[in-house]
User: Fold these one by one.
Assistant:
Number 1:
Amino acid sequence: DAKTTQPPSMDCAEGRAANLPCNHSTISGNEYVFWYRQIHSQGPQYIIHGLKNNETNEMASLIITEDRKSSTLILPHATLRDTAVYYCIVRAPNDYKLSFGAGTTVTVRA
Amino acid sequence: NAGVTQTPKFQVLKTGQSMTLQCAQDMNHEYMSWYRQDPGMGLRLIHYSVGAGITDQGEVPNGYNVSRSTTEDFPLRLLSAAPSQTSVYFCASRQTGRYEQYFGPGTRLTVT
């Protein structure tokens, strides 16, 4: 499995965009980038995934660099409810395992 | 849809006891899995199943058994509980051909 590197923590002001970086320099050509988050004491929640192109859904945007060695998750207008641990994961389509690292603890402040 | 449900929410066991953690999903997902999360750490895969009658080991399978007799249910059995199995256990499911996994609310297990 390709490993990912994320900052351990970051703060964000409510209403501002939160940009969460992730390095995955050993990613293979068929591996997707996934983002999940885990709000305190709850099960992880799927946010978004992508292969090469930038992706956007109702929760977030995912920007993947052209060389695919890093990506950024963007929460466009952070709210207090976005306070959580965010996990960046790379996974091949036929890989049944999601390898969760330590993630980034995001704290949104009023 | 109820999604992924897990019972019980909390459980305390004595060393050597056995028990079964229940997981059910009503989304007709073929793929189901069990993870454990120790304090301050990410999730680790215990066992997974790609359909009824098919199971396989994850990265930390020792001390746990699973079976998958129906699409809906995927119970996790602790054979002889040990303090090292104190953790939060999450069940997840996924539709074949799709990438997003849905997680249950977790079972918090303490072994004394």
Number 2:
Amino acid sequence: DQQVKQNSPSLSVQEGRISILNCDYTNSMFDYFLWYKKYPAEGPTFLISISSIKDKNEDGRFTVFLNKSAKHLSLHIVPSQPGDSAVYFCAASAYSSGSARQLTFGSGTQLTVLP
Amino acid sequence: KAGVTQTPRYLIKTRGQQVTLSCSPISGHRSVSWYQQTPGQGLQFLFEYFSETQRNKGNFPGRFSGRQFSNSRSEMNVSTLELGDSALYLCASSTGPGIMNTEAFFGQGTRLTVV
């Protein structure tokens, strides 16, 4: 049972246009959400995050939107650049036993930005 | 400062064998988490160690085990390898237990192929 779902395995966008990557979750205990970017042969790198007390967080060209009632978040990249081509993972965190937290990842979306 | 180092980068093993993967976290980081990445499954959480103690464990069979040493280096062991264990194994380090913000850094991973 996947608690974090990225239903689009791939997305192609023209350079300069907006890229929108979507993520849905089922666990209402998730209270912190992150996006990671992964290039081939490299480990994932943190991109942007959002706490459940917010509905939007912006960092340069990257904006994450959170809709708690729909259990949905999205990552917007504007404008998209060829260097943004990578696999994007959505991740969610919930408080678990003790003081530890655990990240649950989606299956990833391959973004290709066409020049 | 050096990043997260995983060794070896690539490994080919035969079914039934066992394998040990190594992860050296960033200096000063005491928490190490392990993930398995397979096509279409995203990153599946294996376990997390902090101060030589396993604090969290994902939903994997007992063939998957790990440990952490006093210098925070961590090893992951998989016994009686199966074809389905072929995957990219990623290690992430952070300063404290759990991963909830930008403090998690991933290594490049070990690509394990079971034949």
